[in-house]
Amino acid sequence: MSTSTTVSATARPSSLARRTGLAYLGIIATGIFAEFAVRGTLVVDDDPIATAENIAESPGLFGIGIGADVVMIALDVIVAFGLLGLLRHVNRRMAITATVLRLIQGIVIAVNLINLTERSGSPATPSTPAATRSPDLRSMHSMPSNATPSATTPA
Fold it and tell me: How far apart are CA 67 and CA 113, in angstroms?
């Protein structure tokens, strides 16, 4: 009798495992959406000017892509702690190490997103002073190779 109880208990996934799995599927879905539906339509390979023009013409789409990345980071935190809860009984030290590394990955991605929104002059960062935003790509493209952006960009 105890064998059937053990089998049925292990056959049904726990709610933690379900939540962690759903969060992982969410990471996959938001990552695919952000990469192919957003960046795939905005980014033009080997043409930063066309990419900048596409982003300037579709700031909403660009913002949705950033939003998808933010959701992906939040889901990654859920997965990190879910896997910690599921695997700490197997090897506590390795589970903690994997969790810490996954959280560091999320921090790196978040810093990248902050840098991306600040450098793009995105409407998501209206408080960014104009002086700290990147110079116009058209003016950089026409600069001599030895010039710096601050030397040729009007103040």
Answer: 10
